[in-house]
Write a structure and sequence with these properties.
The complex is a heterodimer of chains A (about 350) and B (about 150).
Chain A (H helix, E strand, L loop, with lengths): L1 E6 L11 E7 L2 E8 L7 H5 L6 H7 L6 H16 L5 H30 L2 H22 L8 E2 L2 E2 L6 H25 L1 H7 L7 H7 L3 H5 L7 H4 L20 H25 L17 E9 L2 E9 L8 E5 L1 H5 L3 H5 L7 H6 L5 H5 L1
Antiparallel strand pairs in A: 1-2, 2-3, 4-5, 6-7, 7-8
Helix pairs in contact in A: 2-3, 4-5, 4-11, 5-6, 6-11, 7-11
Chain B lengths: L6 H5 L6 E3 L2 E3 L7 H10 L3 E9 L6 E9 L2 E9 L3 E3 L9 H11 L2 E3 L29 H9 L1
Parallel strand pairs in B: 2-5, 6-7
Antiparallel strand pairs in B: 1-2, 3-4, 4-5
Classes of the chains: A alpha+beta (about 350), B alpha/beta (about 150).
Chain lengths: ~350, ~150
């Protein structure tokens, strides 16, 4: 006999409000339907009522984890409409901020995944590590969530103490190699909860158009930092970790290896950072009529902003945001079909979903 | 790897790419959105999103279909006089949510598919992103009622 189990929008296993209706035969999920929209704030429509400064502050609040990525993508698009190019130092600072954000996002995710596996000690280890990254972000920007680093044509703040950031990178890297990666890859608990669970095949990953670590864990090796470099990524040497299995363990491995690559990028950016101006030195912007689009590799995958402006207008005519979870979320249906009901919270968490981003 | 320059000819379009605002634009001409989607899928392009624009002075709507081909961002604009266009959901499931979002936000009908509520809830009105709510706008509760009746 089949029965329907609704999970959410408020449920202990869900970090954010959404709903997953699952059809089950015994303990096995045979189909699932996702419902979002519980956080819908109409931000795209609101953006049309904000000027070029206010809209940056507004879009920074699309997401509470990758807030910096949203302003970076928006500012890059607006730079396309104003003809401004950030100075080299600003591009390096943008790379540092983007990688710090990736670190704290991935370590946060590792902690949540550990908690869902029933691995509370690892949860606390990951959150302790994340706190080191948050301290650095706070020291640079004065804030732990909305950093206000990006502006049209550059950045608002400098990174004065690069040694302090490097020290954190070394400590994080050492702890990842000493505990997090070995335990996640060799412990029986982690393997039994993750290996062969929630598989997204390579073919399904392509047809669903998934992005970021979810795509890379299913053998789709796309990474915008390499394929369409922005900021100073062209000057960085790094690998793009790709796994073939498409299961929860593969997604975990991709993120763990990406943490190591982020540490390597940070070390390069901080040691090679050129001196110079932080922004183009322009306070009055002349927007041309037209549309500009920008894409950035956020911790969860590709973010795309399309910004349309009419010359002489104070406000954008249109701001469209395509977030990574919006692309990744529908694939959950294919990940949970055939799986045990008890594994579905971890499977959902394995895409590192952000509903604030998705609903906007 | 497919050369970008060869794509217009393959699509039967006698225009070159117009690189503007970070996008390689190509006007689809007489090509339908479904023919374009089939061609993009054959070339192993990845669907990214559709961006809807409300044009000034009753100019209708413009839908821009964005695809990624080996890191190159491609854009194909489609002008909508009547608020409808063929759905490509049966060709690529990646468009499901964005077609539903544009249906709710701009009251566009994607012909050949069914909808379920995505972002709107009971009490909201279809076309929330339009500058003026159309007189013919249906309440989103119609969608919710349809969903519950299933």
């Amino acid at each position: 006999m089949s029965y329907k189990i609704p999970m959410g929008p408020y449920h202990p296993a869900l970090e954010e409000p959404y709903k997953l209706d699952m059809i089950c035969e015994g303990e096995t999920v045979t189909d699932a339907k996702l419902h979002i929209g519980f956080n819908f704030r109409g931000i795209e429509h609101l953006a049309e009522t904000r000027n070029h400064i206010q809209v940056i502050a507004l879009m920074e609040r699309v997401c509470g984890i990758c807030s910096n990525i949203h302003t970076l993508t928006l500012c890059q698009a607006m730079e396309g409409l104003t003809g401004l190019t950030p100075p080299p130092r600003a591009k390096y600072i943008r790379v540092v901020m983007a990688e710090l954000e990736r670190l704290h996002s991935h370590v946060l995710w590792a902690g949540i995944a550990a908690k869902l596996m029933g691995f509370k000690t690892m949860f606390m280890t990951c959150f302790e590590l994340r706190e080191k990254v948050m301290d650095v972000l706070q020291a640079i920007s004065g804030n732990r969530v909305n950093y206000s680093m990006n502006r049209i044509g550059g950045v608002n703040r400098d990174i004065d103490d690069t040694q302090a950031v490097l020290k954190m990178v070394e400590a994080l890297e050492a702890e990842m190699l000493r505990t997090v990666i070995p335990i996640f890859t060799t412990s029986t608990t982690a393997r039994s909860r993750c290996a062969g669970i929630g598989t997204l095949t390579h073919e399904k990953a392509l047809s669903c158009g998934v992005v970021g670590p979810v795509a890379r864990a299913s053998g789709v090796g796309q990474d915008l930092r390499r394929a369409a470099p922005y900021a100073a990524y062209e000057e960085m040497e790094f690998n793009t970790p790709v796994e073939q299995d498409g299961d929860v363990r593969a997604r975990l491995m991709v993120r763990a290896l990406e943490i190591m690559e982020s540490c390597s990028i940070l070390r390069q950016a901080l040691t090679k950072m050129p001196s110079g101006e932080l922004h183009a030195g322009v306070d009055k912007f002349n927007f041309i009529t037209g549309t500009a689009t920008s894409r950035v590799e956020a911790p969860r995958g590709e973010v795309m902003y399309s910004v349309s402006w009419k010359e002489g207008s104070r406000n954008p005519a249109r701001v469209h945001v395509r977030t990574p979870t919006f692309a990744n979320m529908p694939a959950i249906r294919w990940m949970v079909i055939g799986q045990r009901l008890a594994d579905t919270p971890l499977i959902q968490a394995s895409i590192d979903p952000c509903y604030s981003c998705t609903d906007r | 790897m497919i050369e970008l320059e060869s794509i217009p000819e393959k699509l039967g379009i006698h225009e070159a790419w117009d690189v503007k605002g970070g996008v390689h634009w190509l006007s689809p001409g007489d090509l339908s959105v479904r023919e374009l989607a089939k061609a993009m899928i054959e070339m192993h392009a990845r669907f990214i999103t559709i961006t809807a624009y409300e044009l000034p002075k009753d100019g209708g709507l413009r839908l821009e279909y964005h695809w990624d081909l080996d890191g190159q961002l491609l854009g194909f604009p489609f002008q909508l006089a009547a608020k409808s266009i063929e759905s490509i959901y049966d060709l690529t499931e990646a468009v499901d949510w964005i077609e539903r979002e544009i249906h709710e936000g701009f009251a566009v009908d994607f012909i050949g598919r069914e909808y379920e509520p995505l972002l709107l809830r009971e009490g909201d009105t279809m076309g929330v992103n339009l500058h003026e709510t159309p007189a013919t706008a249906k309440p989103a509760s119609d969608l919710v009622a349809q969903e519950e009746a299933k």
